[in-house]
Amino acid sequence: MSESSLVRELPRRLLAWYSRERRDLPWRRTRDPYRIWLAEVMLQQTRVDAVIPYYRRFLSRFPTLTALAAAPLEEVLWAWAGLGYYARARNLHAAARRVVAEHGGRVPRDLEELRALPGVGRYTAGAVLSIAFDVPAPVLDGNVARVLARLLRLRGDIRAAATQRRLWRVAEQLIPSGRAGDFNQAMMELGALVCTPARPRCPRCPAARLCGAFLHGEQEELPRKARRGPVPHFDVGVGLVWRRGRVLIARRPPSGLLGGLWEFPGGKREEGEPLEETVRREVREEVGLEIGRLSPLVICQHAYSHFRVTLHAFECRAPRGRARPLACEAVRWVRPADLAAYPFPAGSRGILRRIGGGAAAAR
Ligand code: SF4
Questions:
Q1: Confidence class of residue 14 from pLDDT cuts 50, 70 and 90?
Q2: Cystine design at 226: which of 157, 176, 254, 299 (Cβ 3.0–4.6 Å)?
Q3: Mutate to test the pocket of ligand 1, among 209, 211, 215, 224 (most ligand atoms within 8 A of CB)
């Protein structure tokens, strides 16, 4: 199907389908740009059904962008705990503060102004502008890219820069006048419900007669992705250092992976290093304590977007010295029952559960 035929035919068919089939989702009941922005940020890397309870809870705590901007980062991270990819929360919080400081608390309607905010890429800016304000700004997430690649029967690597440029251009051309928000959401909805990665439901698709992949029986083969190398894996030694019924936790620096979250001191095993020695070294370097006896507690696996870790947690008794934040932001001795007040990364969930303090990361 040529691009010009798609531009002529697709919007009308797709919008009619969307008005019948769209799911009733909490962020589709509002035109408030803050609420739409929040949903788009949460939906990056996370499934719709997993996002809904977090979305509601986050908004009951921070109902407006001004309320979010006024809150301390730690409170925001706590409300985010369990959703993962914490850079999203840190950026949203920083962006809310910028909007209050530089735009009088109103989300900018200008693409470049919006994209200048922390964490706002072309996709998020397009989604907020089109859905909240009907600005004809395109969106291209994984769903939309897959739908377009199949409609256009693109056979090259979908991640290639030239392919991405073409997809952005087509996504923009397709937007019908005055219906940017509905059209963009319809494309995403089609990708989520019908044009799924595996076994797309082509007989139920409103675009089937326009679809190059379907007409050539290639819908299961497209889009193509160039192979990536294996995901790296690291062993991490973690120390649960106890003193008088309290366990030591450390807050990570505010930027970088899992920035601002609390964790048990620990770090990557160096080549050939016994895990007990990793824990002793990391605890010494991070919080300045020498630890005595170690006993294995639990082993947990966790996958991040670009690597996997195996956490080897050890309980450490009889620490010597005074805990101080050497390679972290802050340290605290906490009773297990009080750990729920501290935002932890999802990877710590298994360890927290073992010591009866799982609420913070399991939320
Ligand atoms: Fe996707 Fe099939 Fe529809 Fe083509 S016809 S857009 S492959 S669901």
A1: very high
A2: 157
A3: 211
Which protein residues are within 6 Å of ligand 1, measured from CB? 147, 150-151, 194-195, 200, 202, 205, 207-208, 211, 213-214, 219
Average pLDDT over residues 315-326: 92
Q: Which of 170, 174, 193, 194 to mutate to test the pocket of ligand 1 (most atoms within 8 A of CB)?
A: 194
- Catalytic positions are 40
Instruction: Write phi, then psi, for 73 (nearest 5 degrees).
Output: -55, -40
Query: 3-state DSSP call for residue 306?
Result: coil
Q: Whose CA is nearest to atom 2 of ligand 1?
A: 202
How far is the C-alpha of 184 from the C-alpha of 343, rounded, in Å?
34
Ligand 1 centroid distance, CA of 196 (Å): 8
Amino acid at 166: R
pLDDT at 360 over 80: no
Cβ neighbours around 160 below 10 Å, total:
14
Task: Report which ligand 1 atom has the smallest distance to the Cα of 208.
Answer: 5
Q: Which of 55, 92, 83, 95 is nearest to 343 (CA)?
A: 83
Q: What is the dihedral of CA 53, 59, 251, 329, to 10 degrees?
A: 160
Amino acid at residue number 130: S
Q: Tens of pLDDT along 122-181?
A: 999 999 999 999 999 999 999 999 999 999 999 999 999 999 999 999 999 999 999 999
Q: Would the pLDDT of 76 be above 90? A: yes
Alpha carbon of 164 to ligand 1 centroid (Å):
19
Helix, strand, coil percentages, rounded to 5, for the chain: 50, 15, 40
